[in-house]
Amino acid sequence: MSDLEERCAAAGLKMTGQRKVILKVLGEASDHPSVEDVYDRAKDMDSSISIATVYRTLGLLDELDLVTRHEFQEGYSRYEVNADHHHHLIDLETGKVIEFQNDELEKLKIKIARDLGYELVDHRFELYGKKLGKKK
Amino acid sequence: MSDLEERCAAAGLKMTGQRKVILKVLGEASDHPSVEDVYDRAKDMDSSISIATVYRTLGLLDELDLVTRHEFQEGYSRYEVNADHHHHLIDLETGKVIEFQNDELEKLKIKIARDLGYELVDHRFELYGKKLGKKK
DNA sequence: GTAGCTGCAAACTCTTTGCAACTCT
DNA sequence: AGAGTTGCAAAGAGTTTGCAGCTAC
User: Fold this and answer.
1) SS3 of B40, please?
2) What region, left, alpha or beta, does residue A100 occupy, with left being phi > 0 and alpha being psi -120 to 50 degrees?
3) How far is the CA of B55 from the C1' of C18 (A)?
4) Residue of A98, A109, A129 lying closest to B121 (CB–CB)
5) What is the pTM of this model?
6) What is the pLDDT of residues B54-69, one digit of tens each?
């Protein structure tokens, strides 16, 4: 049983065939798949899966904090399996998502919020750019 | 003629009654109104205005960089009349949007992108929090 | 057995758009 | 006059949901 499956079962979720497939897709994903992406990959393993189930499952996993939902400036959601805390740089030319971490930034965001009289609950930090040094 | 009106006319936009109303609403807004907000306020001055016109006008103004469109984690867009560069802290309890600036952050974001091999084109930095020191 | 899960299709929200009529310039 | 603009209603995209049947536990 995979780690994700175990954690779902522990949360009381029934391990249906569809869920196993979706969890497998997520476990194997090294990118930040959209709902459509997850759906397409899941269909390759079980063509009877419906996109409604994918939406519902991803929603549940997000609530359980097993995945994180992102809404970049694209008009739809992407998901990623939870790992260490990090931020994203989106390559505007390819759509590729690059992860990064930055301690200075972590400290700074908390300080900014506190200075404004707020306790930081959540945040969003995204960079959009294009690769340097490209020949035209 | 207001500053916004002048800049629109300069860009070749016809100054229709509806546009004047929408520009007036924007000129008077000290917050970050949603399309719905702008629509409601505009209707108070001219009840014949349609929301399609509001959408179209805000879209045009965004292209002209006279306003900026934000998509916070709310599922709809908010607009703000362009001013100095700044970021936003969204009060999760009231929906209030607080603006802030931070030079350190500005330098940091450029550095992070460059270190990853990217030229920074755009970015998003938003904080979500709740007011400190509130009595329960 | 039954609470929970699924597929399907319809519904929803926010936004965009085709069209015919209208209006600034 | 004529290009640009408008209101309306329909269409779009992404997402959610009601329902009847199915399934894991």
Assistant:
1) helix
2) beta
3) 16
4) A129
5) 0.83
6) 999 999 999 999 999 9
